[in-house]
Amino acid sequence: MYTQSMDTQPDRSAPAEKGPATVMGPEEQRFQATVDAEGKIEPRDWMPEAYRKTLLRQISQHAHSEIIGMLPEGNWISRAPSLKRKAILIAKVQDEAGHGLYLYSAAETLGQSRDQMMAALHTGRAKYSSIFNYPTLTWADVGAIGWLVDGAAIMNQIPLCRCSYGPYARAMIRVCKEESFHQRQGFDIMLSLCKGTASQKAMAQDALDRWWWPVLAMFGPPDADSVHSGQSAKWKIKRVSNDELRQKFVDVTVPQAELLGLRIPDDHLEWNAERNHYDYGAIDWDDFWRVVNGDGPCNKERLATRVKAYENGQWVRDAAVAYANKQKARQHKEAA
Ligand SMILES: [Fe+2]
Ligand SMILES: [Fe+2]
């Protein structure tokens, strides 16, 4: 997976994000001209401090989401219904680890160490996508996550392939290719269930009922309430608004649900010929904010599992450092 629109957390430590400076210095003018001309900003280039901070927050939250996103599906590796499904799911979860690693590397180019980012995640200071705080109750949830959550991630991430910050944009190109495989494997699980017995189809419907609304909320608050969007658009970090992406997702997904023979749990869902889009019902933003702020069904469990995995991996990090030191000492000896 991942990602929820990352502009959900007002960051009071970055006052410059409230609006562009009235007078730009020569360095900032050069920076903005590069961005306006669709050029890429690279780690060694001059950049406004608020641009660096915004990207650091967004990319590290994105990385955390990939890593935490492994947990709800990882729970099903040992219970996958066949060897084929198990092999596919292992590959998918492993891809998410890879996405996390590209993104941590991209974030490191902005001046924060991996240890600092990990500490922020483990102490709850850094956020990750709220969608992973919902439980995976049945095998159909693995299908629904691939189909809907990874599907939403693709919508969100394709515009990021053209983000103005080079390392982030380049990481996203590979990530998007893999997300498209994830989306298809999820849809394939749903298709098999929907072609199966009545109880398998009911399981697929139940998963759609539970995931639909949290997935719509994943795109982030309505444009009118988005705190960072204006400046992010000017910097070409965020190119398409939350509401536009959400609409695009609904328009693409409704026919897919029809093909599956499933009902989207929204009485207000209706094709609007005038707008040329589907109309849809109201999202429960109170529930979204409750989960973002730590009170979702699985927030505590996810974080505890992540911290435990990190602690259990300490010996691997220690061994890697000891090995690197030994290699270095040997090279010194040979050079002497
Ligand atoms: Fe991913
Ligand atoms: Fe994915």
Give structural notes.
About 4% of the residues have low confidence. Strands 1-2 form a two-stranded antiparallel sheet. The chain is an all-alpha fold. The relative contact order is 0.13. The chain is built from 13 helices and two strands. The longest helix is centred in the middle third of the chain and has 29 residues. α6 packs antiparallel against α7. It binds fe (ii) ion (2 copies).
Could you name the key traits of this structure?
mainly alpha, globular, 336 residues
Integer average pLDDT? 92
Round the Cα radius of gyration to an integer and report it.
21 Å
| Fraction in beta strands | under 5%
Our count of helices gives 13
| Major sheet attributes | 2 strands, antiparallel
Short summary:
By secondary structure, this protein is mainly alpha-helical. It is built from 13 helices and 2 strands, in the order H-H-H-H-H-H-H-H-H-H-E-E-H-H-H.
Topology:
Elements: H1 26-36, H2 49-68, H3 70-74, H4 83-108, H5 114-122, H6 139-157, H7 166-194, H8 198-217, H9 229-234, H10 242-260, E1 270-272, E2 277-279, H11 285-295, H12 299-312, H13 314-335
Antiparallel strand pairs: 1-2
Helix pairs in contact: 2-4, 4-7, 6-7, 6-8, 6-10
The structure holds fe (ii) ion (2 copies).
One fe (ii) ion (FE2) binds at residues 1-2, 66, 96, 99, 175, 179.
